[in-house]
Predict the 3D structure of the following.
Amino acid sequence: MTLVQERRLVTALPGPRSQQILARKAEAVAAGVAHTVPIAAVAAGGGVVVDADGNSLIDLGSGIAVTTVGNAHPKVAAAIAAQAAAFTHTCFMISPYESYIAVAEALNRLTPGGFAKRSALFNSGAEAVENAVKIARKHTGRSAVIAFEHGYHGRTNLTMALTAKAMPYKSGFGPFAPEIYRAPVSYPYRDGLSGADAAARAIAVIEKQVGADSTAAVLIEPIQGEGGFIVPADGFLPAVQEWCRANGVVFIVDEVQTGFARTGTMFASEQFGIEPDLITTAKGIAGGMPLAAVTGRAEIMDAAHAGGLGGTYGGNPIACAAALAAIDVFENDGMLERAQAIGSLLRIRLEGLQRADARIGDVRGVGAMAAIEFVDPVTGAPDAALAGAVAKAAVSDGVIVLTCGTFGNVIRFLPPLSIPDELLHEGIDVLAAALARTEGAS
Ligand code: PLZ
């Protein structure tokens, strides 16, 4: 890690060079591809992102939970360089190569469940989810898929249908794929239900409105990411899994955001005591290279006929080399412990903020995946304006934080696990100062 680990603002953001580049963006890049941090990045590593003007920002977002091992991690960068020099592509469906197979073996070994497994590799989280649904439908011969309120699964046509939130993800982009049904989730802060009661409510909706016999799969994030870092009540996920088992429904758990040490275990499923039939992964898997996977029970994964799954780039050799290096770091460089330590630090700091400010209605998360939900202290109504203003002010002061939530009123913390503690503290200090001087919507 050669970058100096400090927050350093040498210009207001965006600085003059970033301004020039962002002006070109406005002219050249489609307006729909927006950005939230007004800089042009030129380097990143450890716990910082450096821009074209020499500003160094504290990174509490990891490019949306991707650079978990650290940006440009030396082992990942070396593996990419070596693979790029050897060969960049053959297409695994034409001429297979060992690294793809080694990634599949690692995923089969690391994902929860002692049963025989298979994996297939793709390019993005959305593509992994699409393929998990294809596989579940082929295996069951059924078509309905259950997704949940507040769920997020991507922006492709099928995954837009699976995603709950209209704006910005779906609005004007329909018609959406058929045979997708939405069930209520467990959102303890807002519904006050036990896990068992929330599961009973969801199962009743599925049974009454869809029917187990028509249902190919239930698809859920163990902790909902884009939807607001919603941690379900204890017992919710096991009860849903049990219902799936009893009804021959494939239980697909989307660990695209929660996967790979983020929550302090390799997969969040482990913390909820579930062993999904299929798991989708992406983001953290390859240290920043585009790679995604579906991993699961061999008899389900093998249901698709030869040639039924694939794609030109799926499991690209450079992405696989990066993944093998990242997985080595996850397993051997103390990443689980680091995620747990970051989680404790964040929780202590965020709960401190909450005690001092009633506009923070909830502090939640697991490991290095933490969030605060902003509300009107009197009514409990979501305060998206406050979350947005605080996040924007923190960014202006050199701390990258992301918002999320169906109501847009959540600030989430997804630091790279390579961030030093001092920068975490400084990042929270900056956020606290921004909060103290920001008025809410009410
Ligand atoms: N499943 C659980 O979190 C991606 C989306 C950001 P892709 N989340 C970040 C945005 O605004 O586009 C995500 C996820 C879960 C699937 C996906 C989709 O992964 O790699 O973005 O396709």
Observations:
- The two ends are 44 Å apart (CA to CA).
- The longest strand covers residues 360-366.
